[in-house]
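Q: Give me the 3D complex with 6-acetyluridine 5'-phosphate.
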Amino acid sequence: MEAQTVWGSRWENCANPLAHRIMEVATKKKSLVCLAADMESISDLIELITEVGPYIAALKTHVDMVKDFNRDDWKKLTELAASLDLLLFEDRKFADIGKISQNQMAGIYDIRSWADIVTAHRISGPDIVDGIAAGWADVERIGGILLLAQMSSRGNLLSPDYTKNTIETGKGSPHVIGYIGNGSSTEEIIQLRALVGEGQMIWTPGINLDSGAGKMGQRYGNPRDSITSGADIIIVGSGIHGQSDRVTAAKAYADASWEAILERGK
Ligand code: 6AU
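A: Here is the predicted complex, encoded as structure tokens.
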């Protein structure tokens, strides 16, 4: 099946080339899953990705929770990701003023050199988008930002007004490929899609086939509901990496997401 057929109007309206790339990979792998690879060592990350890489469309990291970070081994991880056709998404949640965000794209982790996608909060002002883009430009790369428009965690302060302002900042920006939405609430995803329109992506964390598994205020919805409500990529962490059979788990999320996008297309 062709990506264009699967994604329909989303394919036609998302101008960002990175959005098209992710839609193509997702179509090829029949999986709309971004793995939240929340591991604490590079060897654990490599082992996990080697196992489930064929069943996921993107790889999300929290580089600052990796205890043995070093650039040589991290390069091995990024090469493995590339060999598995995975876009690399560093969930840094930048939130500072533009200039500092630009500098934070460099630093010890040098996120600008390997990440294709990063997350950012809109809280500090709209210039954070230009700051992050300038970080990539410093190493002659181009990446995409996912702005946090909603969150999955209980009691978060991202009000409907805040969500609206966030989309105003992101809409039409060549650097913003889309938004993080709250995967635990179909109502919120539907509202978010109505605000975003068809031209940008929505990625949703807060996804688990076991809706009661959330710890420390995390809330969960299921893959199918999220996609049929208007999300494009589901972000799944412990639903995959926390299971004893990670391959079977990854396949289950991939299948559920793929069936849902086909259903949505009808
Ligand atoms: O599936 P889990 O609950 O094990 O992991 C969820 C992942 C974690 C969080 O840092 C992230 O998704 N996340 C985010 C993101 C992607 O920015 C936003 C949010 O509102 N909730 C959330 O859990 O790696």
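A quick observation: The pocket of 6-acetyluridine 5'-phosphate is lined by residues 36, 38, 91, 119, 151-153, 180, 205-206, 208, 218, 235-239 (CB under 6 Å).
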